[in-house]
Design brief:
Blueprint (H helix, E strand, L loop, with lengths): L1 E5 L6 H12 L3 E5 L4 E4 L6 E4 L2 E2 L5 E4 L6 H13 L3 E2 L3 H8 L1 H8 L9 E2 L7 H7 L5 E5 L8 E4 L2 H13 L4 E5 L7 E8 L2 E9 L14 E4 L4 H14 L3 E7 L6 E6 L5 H7 L3 H12 L12
Parallel strand pairs: 1-2, 1-6, 6-7
Antiparallel strand pairs: 3-4, 4-5, 8-11, 9-10, 9-11, 12-13, 12-15, 13-14, 15-16
Helix pairs in contact: 1-9, 2-3
Length: about 300
Amino acid sequence: MRIAILSRKATLYSTSRLIEACRQRQADVAVLDPLQCVVKLSKKRPEVFHNGERVTGIDGVVPRIGASITFYGLAVLRQFEMMGVFPANESQAISRSRDKLRSLQLLSRYDIGIPPTAFARRREDVRSAIRKVGGAPVILKLLEGTQGMGVILAESVKSAESVLDAMSSLGQNILIQAFIEEAHGTDYRAIVVGGKVVAAMARQAGEGEFRSNLHRGGTATGVQLDEAYVKTAVHAAEVLGLNIAGVDMIPSQEGPMVLEVNSSPGLEGIEGATGVDVAGAMIDFVLARAPLGHPHTRGRG
C-alpha cells in the first residue's frame, strides 16, 4: 500500500507524524508538494507529475493543504480523485469547510448549534445585522482567517462599524457573530476520524484574550467530551462530508455550538494534550478504505 501526503514540507510536525504512522504500518509513503505538481489532462488518462516525474502506484492520498494554496492544492487533489485514488478528505468537502459562511449555512439546516451569525454587505445594514445576532459585543470574522487571525471582538456597535468599514475598503468579507459570553474563553476541539471522535481537548484563552487558539497563547488539556459534544462534532463533520475533521465548539446556555470545522487539523496540539496517536488513527482510516490498485496510477513511470 502506498500513501501520498500532499504537504509543502515533510518537516512540518503534522506531516512528519503522518509519515511516521505510515512507516509504523509498513505502508510506503511519499510527500508531494502540491505547488510542485503538474496536472495533465487528456482523454481517459488523468495524470499528476511531481518535479517532472509521473506519479504512479498511489492507493490513498492525505491532503494537508494550507489555506494560502487552497485553489491549486484542491486542483491537484481532484486529479488524484480522477485517477481513482482514495482521498482522506474529498476535494469538495475541503472546499465547503474552507468557506466559513458556506459551512455555517450548511450546518444551520440541521440540528447543530451555531452562534447566531449575520452577513451583510452594505454599511447601512450593519446596525440591523448586529441587532439580529443579539447586539454588541460581537465577534467579527474574516471569511478567510485561520488560527485565530482575522477574528476581532467589537465591544460596541461603533467599533464594529469602524472595523467593518476598514475591512470592506480592503475588499474583505466579514461575518458578524454573537459573542457567547458564558463560554468564558473556553472551547473544545474534537478530532473526528471516520465518524468517531478519536481525541478531544479543552482550550482556554490566555489572560486578556478571548481567542483560545494555541497560536494565540491559549492552553490545552485532554478531555473526555460529554455525549452532546461528541454527537455535535460527528454530525458537523458528516454534514460537511469530511472523513477527517477538527471540530471547534464552545459551551453555551443552549448546549454546544460549532465555531468552525477544519479539514486539516494540526496534530501537535491535540497529540501533546491527549497523548493519543491521532496521526495513526488517520492513516489507519485511509489504509482500511484505500482500494488495492488503480488502473490509472499503476504502470509506467
